[in-house]
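Ligand-bound model needed. adenosine-5'-diphosphate.
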Amino acid sequence: MRPEILNPLFAETRTLDGVGPKMAKPLAKLGLERVRDVAYHLPERFVARRAIANLDDGAEGEQIIVALTPTEHRAPYNPGRGPYRVLAQDEIGNICALTYFGRASYSAKKQLPVGEKRWVAGRLDRYGDMLQIVHPDHVEEDSAAHLARMNEPVYALSEGLTQPRVASLISQALERLPELPEWIEPGQFEREGWPQWRDALHLAHKDDNRSARDRLAYDELLANSLALLLVKADSRRRRGQALVGDRALRDRLDLPFEMTGAQRRSISEIEGDLQQEAPMLRLLQGDVGAGKTVVALEAMLIAVEAGKQAAMLAPTEILARQHFETLRAMAAPTGVEIALLTGRAKGREREGILLGLLDGSIDILVGTHSIFQDTVSYRDLGLVVIDEQHRFGVAQRLALAAKGRRAPHTLAMTATPIPRSLTLAQYGEMDVCRLDELPPGRQAIDTRVVPQDRMEDVVAAVERHLAGGQQAYWVCPMVRETNGGFESDDIAAAEARYAALKERFGDAVTMVHGQLTPDVKDANMARFAAGDAKLLVATTVIEVGVDVPSATLMVIEQAERFGLAQLHQLRGRVGRGSEKSVCLLLRGGELSETGRKRLALMRETQDGFRIAEEDLELRGGGELLGTRQSGEAAFRIADLDQVQRLLPAAHADARLLIDRDGGLTSERGEAARILLYLFERDWGVQLLRGG
Ligand code: ADP
Ligand code: MG
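Prediction:
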C-alpha cells in the first residue's frame, strides 16, 4: 500500500484548478497524469527575458517584457472559435496584437482595459504583418525590472497547452508537496550539499540549479537501484529448480546453419546456470541479427527436456506471432508443443490454451504480457525468456515472472546495445552474456546520408529497387516541433507519406503504425512479409522485430532526429538476406557538428556496441536511454550525464541500505519505501512482503 503521505502527489491532475476534461488529453500526452508528474515536469531550458523600451528593440522570437497600452479589443468573429485579440501600442506607436485562445480571453478582458498602460511579457512573434505575443504574462510594473533579469523556464508542451498554463499547473503542484523524510544517506547528503527534496523541486523550476537537479536525479537512480537489488535479493531467497536436460530434444533439431562461437558460448553458460537450483538471472545481449532466437530455443528445450515448461514474453503482438512461427518451424522435428497466447485470444481458443498450460500438454508458450496474467497458471514453469523491447522494465517483468512459488529461471534478451557503463543502470546485477559475433555471410549495409530535399531522387531509387524485384522499408520521422512547442503527430506524417507513395506505387505500398487496428496491422505486415506488398511505410513500430530477408532497402526520413541506437536497430531490418542492402539516411536540414558526426558514425560502422559507446561520447543527452517523451525510458529525471556521474554512488548507497536493512524497516528504510513509491518502483517493495 502506498504510504499515505504521498496521497496528495498521486492525486490526478484534474484535481488541479483549471484542468477540465479537455486538458486531460494534452496532459496525458506529456505523461502528466498525477500531481507528482506535474511537479516533476522540469523545464527543458531557461530563457532570459529582456525588458525593452519599445518594440523596435525586440527581435522576433525573443522573450521580452514591454509596456503597452491597449487600444482595441477584438473578439473572434465566431465566438468560441479563433483567438481573442487585444491590439496594443508601445510608447512610440508600434502596434502589437496580444493573442488569447480559449478561456484565456476572459483574463485579457479584465486585465487590459483600453487606454491603460500595462507591462506584458512573452515571446515576440509575427502574425501576418503584425507583431504579436501569444498568451502574454501580465507583469506588475514594479516587478518588471526584476523579471527582466530572471530566467524564464521553458517546458515541453503538447498541442492544447501553453507555457503559462503549464507554469500555473506546476506552481499549484509545488504547493501541494508534502514534507518527506530524507532517504539519501546522511553522509552523502552533507557532502554534496544538496537541498532537501521539496526545496530541490522548487529550485529546479526556478532556474538552472544544478545542485537541485542532481539531487532529484539521484533520487531516481537510487530508487531504480533499490528496486533492482530487491528483485535480485528476492530471487536469491526463493528456491528455484535445477534443470538438467538430456539433449534428447536438442539433438533432434535440424538447423540450416552452424552456431557461431558466441552462440555456443552463451548456450553453455545458460546451460550451466540452469543446472543450479538458484534461479538464473541472465541477460543475453546481442545485436540485431546476432541470432538470439535460437539461443532462446535451446534454453527452452533444456527446460522441456527436464520435464518443465518454458514461456517466452514478447513486447508486441507482431513479435509474439513472429517468434511463435519461427520457433514452431525450428522446433518441428522435436515434437514439442508450442502455443501462442496474446491478448486477442478469446473464448474457446483461450480456454484451450489455459487448459494445456495447466495439464502440461503445452511445453512452450509464446505471448505478450498476457502470459503472466493471474488467470494463467502453468503446471510447472521452469524458464521465462523475456524478449525485450523497452529498454527498461526488465526488472519489472522479472518481478512479474517471479510470481510462481518456485522461482523460474529467467533469461532476458535485448538487442539494444548499451555501453558497459550503463548496463548496471538498466539491468542491475544480472549476469550478462554478449553475442558479439554475427553469423557469417552477412553483408555490410551500404549506408548513405542524403539531404531530404533530394526526395525525387530517393523515390526514383526506391522505384528502381522495387523494379528489380526487391522490397523496401520507408521509415517516417518522429516529428517533434520544439519551436512552437507543439508535438505534431508521427502518425500524420506517416499517413501523408503513405498517400504520396501510393500515388506513385499503387498497391505495392502498405503501411503499419500504432493507430491501425491490430487486425489491419497484421494483415498489412503479412502482405509485406509474403512479398505481396513491396514497400512498407512505417513509423518506428518496425524497430523491434520483423524479419523479411528480401527487404534490402531502407529509407529513414529525418534521420538526425533518431537516437543512434534506434537508427541502428532500424537499419538492422535490412541486410538479413544474402543480397546487398542499402540504407538511406535522409537528413532534414543543416546538421550541427555533432549531428554530422553521428550520422557519419552510422555510415562507418555496423557494430552496435561501438555505436552505443561512441554515441555516449558524442552527446550528453538522454537519448540513448530512450527519448524521454516516449514514456518508455526508465529515467524521466536523470539524463545520461547524471546517470554516469551519479549512478555509482546511488548504487553503492542502495546496496549498503539493502545489506543492512533488507526489509526496509529502519527509519531510513521507511523513507526508502516512500522513495520507491514516489518513483513507481513499488514492484520492488511488493517483493518484500513475499519474503
Ligand atoms: P536476433 O538476435 O536479432 O533476434 P535472430 O535470432 O532473429 O536474430 O536471427 C537472425 C537470422 O539469423 C535468422 O534468420 C536466423 O535464422 C539466422 N541465424 C541465427 N544464427 C545463425 C547462424 N549461426 N548462422 C547463420 N544464420 C543464423
Ligand atoms: Mg530477435
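The chain is about 40% helix and 20% strand.
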